[in-house]
Design goal:
Layout: E1 5-12, H1 18-25, E2 33-37, H2 46-49, H3 54-57, E3 67-68, E4 81-82, H4 104-112, H5 120-130, E5 131-132, E6 147-148, E7 150-151, H6 158-169, E8 185-188, E9 190-191, E10 193-194, E11 197-198, H7 201-206, E12 215-219, E13 221-229, E14 232-240, E15 243-255, H8 258-268, E16 271-272, H9 274-279, E17 286-287, E18 293-295, E19 299-300, E20 302-307, H10 320-333, E21 345-349, E22 360-365, E23 369-372, E24 375-378, E25 383-390, E26 397-400, E27 411-413, H11 420-438, E28 446-451, H12 459-469, E29 471-472, E30 502-504, H13 519-543
Parallel strand pairs: 1-2, 1-15, 2-12, 5-6, 15-30, 16-17
Antiparallel strand pairs: 3-4, 7-9, 8-21, 10-11, 13-14, 14-15, 18-26, 19-29, 20-25, 20-28, 21-22, 22-25, 23-24, 26-27
Helix pairs in contact: 1-13, 5-13
Length: about 550
């Protein structure tokens, strides 16, 4: 084994948050940072660069952990696929590229739970600093950040204009900026796509930082455990190609493995529920009850409708000579089907009278897809696919290691549909999707309701269909939740309770789900973590009489 390496900071995981943390910590040149990533691909991986490549990567073990949940009642006894990015940029490199911050109330709730510094007014400047977006109001939107955000073109798919008109008829007006003052209404998806290229954190944050002498990136690095001396974290044990290695951090270690791998690493290191760890042969170091608990995700049935008429959906453009035409269009102009997100339009709405803000969403893919030999392909049949879900799911599950072997996937238990809030919400969302399809002018082009089928109308029957068919929207959060209660794992500074020199920065720290896709909030968490780490470093430097920001 090579001699130990020592750095100021070690970041475990180069995903949506971890890539941001490493980039920001190395900007000044004052701090030496080691970034560990289990995946081996970077931002130039072909299918990651190409927006439509998400269909190829969602089942590809070369760039995806390809996790699956444990069977439970909420999933009808099924295992549900849980794709997670395994490459530089993490899930920002394989996701659908939708950019949604969530609602102001999401972050205000975090603050109300005792997390000072996480209210909407606290995080808004962070969102603005990280993004580069030309639309909306300067009050809410950032103009000069590293992350390029754009609107999906509105007039390229005629069917979408029909949806916008139909939505207005059912009381949902067009909203030009669902990340602005209000989320409510129908709007074109804002996406991390620019000139036909995915804007992952690997591309926007890491690529500009790779030439920095103070940043070391090790890929193919599987973290095995944290190195703990008493109740202080001093580094990481990991392996590359089967070779065991260790690295030491003189200041801090930041775990950014995501909502699945972060609690897994803590438990492998002896941080978690003592009796659970002891039963697996893992020596408990610190009894922290909340590790792996509070798992939440958006549970989403796919509601499907046939569309009558040619050239209204992407099904006509993704096959044969039309696909060749789309490829040429992409090569020449970086636009069209190949340059698009799969869900270009979405509705946010309130499911009942009396709510202050939207509590459910319908995201619409203007095509049908099917599985052929395990590969997702656009169907020959013309249609649309609706992802429907409640925004702030209250059902909670868990993620826990099954053994002391780092190579063994953890047990993921979602416990979906375990609250009345979630059951009634998903029923209302399905019916809102049906209402949209029944409104003119959509009603003039809609054919058969393919799934669940117009014959399924009763609540119990619809819920039974959801249990047996729904998927997640790939937004797991909460398994190292932030707070001060007995089940919190990190404090408002993202420091692990009871362990010095250790923070967690990724979607696992979210106490509750945000109202929409979780990639933008994860990037924000990375930005905010780096800000807090640097503030701590500056404070220590001042206390020692050194120049602020002075490094090794």
């Amino acid at each position: 084994m090579p001699s130990d390496s020592t750095y100021d900071y070690i970041v475990v995981g180069a995903g949506s948050a971890g890539a941001v943390v490493a980039s920001r910590l190395t900007e000044s040149g004052a701090h030496r940072v080691l970034l560990l990533e289990a995946g081996t691909q970077g931002s130039n991986f072909f299918w990651s660069r190409l927006p439509v490549g998400v269909a190829r990567m969602i089942d590809d073990p070369a760039v995806n952990w390809c996790y699956a949940s444990e069977p439970d009642e909420g999933s009808g006894g099924r295992r549900i696929d849980v794709p997670r990015g395994k490459m530089l940029g993490g899930s920002s490199s394989i996701n659908g590229m939708v950019y949604i911050r969530g609602q102001a109330r999401d972050y205000d709730q975090w603050a109300q739970l005792g997390n000072r510094g996480w209210s909407y007014q606290d995080v808004l400047p962070v969102f603005k600093r990280m993004e580069r977006y030309e639309g909306g109001s300067d009050e809410f939107r950032g103009r000069e950040g590293l992350l390029r955000v754009n609107d999906t073109p509105r007039h390229k798919v005629p069917l979408l204009e029909k949806m916008i008109e139909a939505a207005a008829r059912i009381g949902l007006p067009f909203n030009p900026d669902q990340n602005g003052e209000t989320q409510e209404g129908i709007g074109m998806s804002q996406v991390t796509i620019a000139r036909g290229r995915r804007q992952s954190t690997a591309y926007c944050y890491l690529d500009p930082a790779r030439s920095r002498a103070n940043l070391t990136i090790e890929q193919g690095a599987m973290a095995g455990s944290l190195i703990l001396e008493g109740t202080r974290c001093v580094g990481v044990r990991y392996s590359v190609g089967g070779e065991k290695r260790e690295a030491r951090a003189t200041r801090e270690t930041i775990v950014s493995g995501g909502s699945i791998n972060s609690p897994k690493l803590l438990e492998l290191s002896g941080i978690g529920q003592a009796e659970r760890l002891r039963a697996l042969g893992i020596a408990p170091v610190h009894d922290l009850r909340g590790v792996g608990e509070n798992l939440r995700d958006h549970y989403s049935p796919r509601v499907k409708f046939e569309i009558k008429g040619k050239n209204l959906t992407f099904n006509d453009n993704a096959r044969g000579w039309r696909l060749v035409r789309e490829a040429a269009r992409y090569a020449l102009f970086r636009e069209g089907f190949l340059a698009s997100t799969s869900v270009p339009i979405r509705l946010y709405f309130r499911t009942r009278v009396g709510l202050e803000t939207p509590d459910a969403t319908v995201s619409i893919a203007p095509f049908l897809y099917e599985l052929v030999d395990g590969v997702r392909r656009v169907s020959k049949r013309r249609g649309i696919t609706m992802n429907v879900n409640v925004l702030r799911s209250e059902s909670t599950g868990s993620i826990h290691v099954k053994s002391a072997d780092p190579a063994e996937p953890p047990a993921i238990r979602f416990n979906f549909l375990s609250t009345e809030h979630d059951r009634s919400g998903v029923l209302a969302a399905i019916r809102k999707g049906r209402e949209l399809m029944a409104a003119s002018p959509m009603s003039e082009v809609v054919g058969e309701e393919i799934a669940p089928g117009a014959h399924i109308q009763k609540d119990d029957d619809l819920l039974d269909w959801v249990r047996n068919n729904a998927e997640t929207t790939y937004h797991p959060v909460g398994t190292c939740k932030m707070g001060s209660d007995t089940m919190a794992v990190v404090d408002a500074e993202l420091r692990v309770h009871g362990i010095a020199g250790l923070r967690v920065a990724d979607a696992s720290i979210m106490p509750t789900l945000t109202s929409g896709n979780t990639n933008a909030p994860s990037i924000m968490i990375g930005e905010k973590c780096a800000e807090m780490v640097l503030a701590t470093a500056a404070g220590k430097a001042v206390s020692r009489g050194e120049a602020v920001g002075a490094g090794r």
